[in-house]
Amino acid sequence: MTLRPILIHPDPRLKTVADPVASITDEIRRLADDMLETMYDAPGIGLAAPQIGQMSRLLVMDATKEDEGAPRPMVLVNPTVTWASEARSVYEEGCLSIPEQFAEVERPAKVEVQWLGLDGKTHAERFEGLWATCVQHEIDHLDGKLFIDYLKPMKRQMITRKMVKLKRERARG
Ligand SMILES: [Zn+2]
């Protein structure tokens, strides 16, 4: 397994719609392994392939809370939301591609998602709580959408300016 560098906003790849995965190959399995390792190392609760510059519809997540015991690493290939609750919930979201910036985002409180597993089978599950927010945030990444796109333009521009500055500082080393 290899840690992959995470792209920081703004980056055109984070605004691009990712391509469906045609089939589960060893390359896809390796990519999923690398993404899980990169996510846990960050640390984060979700990571989508475009965040490491791979334009494939693949995400990994584990929104298990520390006091809930064993981790539950999940790999979702070609995920789609098949149902969303009318009830909505608000979470303070962050993103590994937008370090140290957090903002409240409102989304459906529960969603049903269907995806292809690394076992080549179709899976479906209903998510709620932090899992529901996480899976929607990550699927957004596959559609070139970031959580700051839900914010008012002023706030979004302020965060983007901070990220431009951060990238400049990191490039200088
Ligand atoms: Zn994110």
UniProtKB/TrEMBL annotation:
Keywords, in A-Z order: Hydrolase, Iron, Metal-binding, Protein biosynthesis
Reactions accelerated catalytically: N-terminal N-formyl-L-methionyl-[peptide] + H2O = N-terminal L-methionyl-[peptide] + formate
Pfam families: Pep_deformylase (PF01327)
UniProt KW Nucleotide-binding keyword: no
InterPro entries referenced in this protein's UniProt entry, alphabetically: Peptide_deformylase, Peptide_deformylase_sf
Enzyme class: hydrolase
This enzyme's EC code(s): 3.5.1.88
BP GO annotations: translation
SUPFAM superfamilies (alphabetical): Peptide deformylase (SSF56420)
Cofactor: binding comment: Binds 1 Fe(2+) ion.
GO MF annotation list: metal ion binding; peptide deformylase activity
Family annotation (Gene3D superfamilies): Peptide deformylase
Active site: E138
UniProt name for this protein: Peptide deformylase
Lineage of source species: Bacteria, Pseudomonadati, Pseudomonadota, Alphaproteobacteria, Rhodobacterales
The encoding gene: def_3
